[in-house]
Structures are given as C-alpha cells and as structure tokens.
Design brief:
PUA; MCT-1/Tma20; 9 strands; single chain; about 20% strand; RNA binding; about 190 residues; five-stranded antiparallel sheet; Sulfate adenylyltransferase; four-stranded mixed sheet
Length: about 190
C-alpha cells in the first residue's frame, strides 16, 4: 500500500466528538490498549487527520503517527505505536526466509507463517504463549514479528483465518499493510 515514498496532504484537526468516537473504536477493536488509551490519545490533546494518497487517512498526535485507515476499513496501528505497545495486538511470526520479501513490500504468503520458524496461535498452549491460543479470523488486524528479531516488521489485515492457513499451507495470508521502511514509515510529519 505504501511501497513508494509518500508526501502528506492536507492536515486538519479532528473534532472532539469524532475524537471520542475514534477512542471508543480503538478500545473496541484493540481491548488490550484500553489501559493506555489516555497515553495514546489524551483527552485534552488535539488529534490531527492527515490525508494521504489512495484515500488513506492518518491520525496523528502532533507529529506522532498513531493509526491509519483506508476509506472506511479498520483502523490499523502505525508500527511506531506497535513498537511502543507490542503486547496489545494479536500477532503472528514469520520465518527468517520471509523477512526480505515482507520488507520489500511483497504480499505475505502463508508458507512464511506455517514453516518451522513461523508461529500461529496454538490451542492448548499456556496463557503466556506469545502468539495466543485463539484462532484469528479474516478481516482481523494482526502484527507480524520476524524470527530472531525484537520488533514487529509488518501490520496488516488477515485474508484467511489462521485455522485455514494451518490446513491449506498456501495462499495469501495478509492484505497489503504497513511495513518497516515503507513510505508511511519514512513519512516526515515535522
């Protein structure tokens, strides 16, 4: 979605009523962010909306990107926010071989998640299992971590359920999203 460098378009202030609605939508979509919502979007701070190419809206606080949204799709967290609150989002892990493809903007394919280095939610794992025990469904926003790396490298929307991925072991796993080094990552809002 953001393969090329992008330049920010018009910047406008979000009305307080819309800001409250966004806060509610965030806590409904990402319940683990609820304790941090006042840090992320303080009630007394002004949230800004920055228009980006291809009908993408970026919500920022001062010059800090928080969430982006394509038309009326899901609110997707910016990787900077994911790095600050890594345990608040559903996540999967890709194997080492898939890293270079993801960071070059290629579509994330299922084999990168189902091979030995990849991780999907596992039933029967203990509560401390990093990748969860609940199967994820198409349309859910997930964060992708890479084998052997500390920070997440991709955030996007699932195209198929994790149960289906385990069964089929092929196909597209996620729709285009936001990855380290893409145009959204390098966007200068200052």
């Amino acid at each position: 979605m953001f393969k090329k460098d992008i330049s920010p378009g018009a910047k406008s202030k979000v009305k307080s009523s819309a800001q409250r609605a966004i806060r509610t939508k965030i806590t409904d979509t990402y319940p683990h962010l609820t304790p941090y919502i006042d840090e992320i979007i303080p009630k007394k701070e002004q949230l800004d909306l920055v228009k980006l190419p291809d009908r993408v809206s970026l919500y920022t606080l001062a010059s800090t990107p928080l969430f982006f949204q394509h038309m009326d799709d899901a609110l997707i967290p910016h990787l900077a926010l994911v790095h600050k609150y890594p345990d608040c989002f559903p996540r999967l892990r890709i194997d080492r071989g898939a890293i270079r493809f993801v960071l070059s903007g290629a579509t994330l394919m299922v084999p990168g998640l189902t091979s030995p280095g990849g991780k999907l939610p596992e039933e029967g794992e203990d509560e401390e299992y990093r990748y969860g025990t609940k199967e994820l469904e198409p349309g859910e926003v997930v964060v992708i971590e890479a084998e052997g790396k500390e920070n997440a490298c991709f955030v996007g929307v699932l195209k198929m359920s994790t149960a289906e991925m385990k069964k089929q072991k092929k196909g597209q796993a996620l729709e285009a999203g936001h990855y380290l080094g893409d145009g959204l990552w390098g966007l200068n809002l200052g």
